[in-house]
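Quick review question:
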């Protein structure tokens, strides 16, 4: 079995609050939320980092953003505003090496980020 926590959640081997699932991605509630709304939009395919994306992933990346904007509307944070973040490697604090789009909303956020 894969050692990846998001692959395990995808396959139902680890429980999570799954709020969306389709043929290309799924979305879960973050276990350690950093905002009142904190979802992770995760491709079904195991892709370790943004550095591993290829031109073949163009449609998938667009789909992740469209899914995030749909979830932001459903969560009621679309108009108040939200942040979409994909961390890459240590300087950005990436801890799970299966790419995921953080959707953070429901509170004002500082810029530039810390
Ligand atoms: P990153 O640091 O960008 O790689 O983000 C990883 C995110 O995954 C963090 O916000 C964690 O809180 C979250 N996370 C880790 N394990 C789980 C889990 N089992 N269920 C839900 N979220 C998780
Ligand atoms: Zn994975």
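Suggested answer, residue by residue:
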């Amino acid at each position: 079995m894969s050692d990846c926590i998001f692959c395990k959640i995808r396959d139902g081997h680890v429980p999570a609050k799954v709020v969306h699932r389709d043929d290309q991605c799924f979305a879960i509630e973050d276990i350690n939320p950093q905002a009142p709304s904190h979802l992770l939009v995760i491709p079904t395919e195991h892709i370790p980092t943004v550095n591993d994306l290829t031109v073949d992933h163009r449609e998938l990346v667009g789909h992740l953003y469209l899914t995030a904007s749909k979830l932001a509307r459903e969560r009621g944070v679309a108009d108040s505003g939200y942040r979409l973040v994909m961390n890459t490697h240590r300087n950005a604090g990436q801890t799970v090496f299966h790419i995921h789009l953080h959707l953070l909303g429901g509170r004002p956020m500082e810029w530039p980020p810390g």
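Why it works: The helical segments are 5-10, 58-75, 89-92. The pocket of zinc ion (ligand 2) is lined by residues 2, 4, 6-7, 46, 98 (CB under 6 Å).
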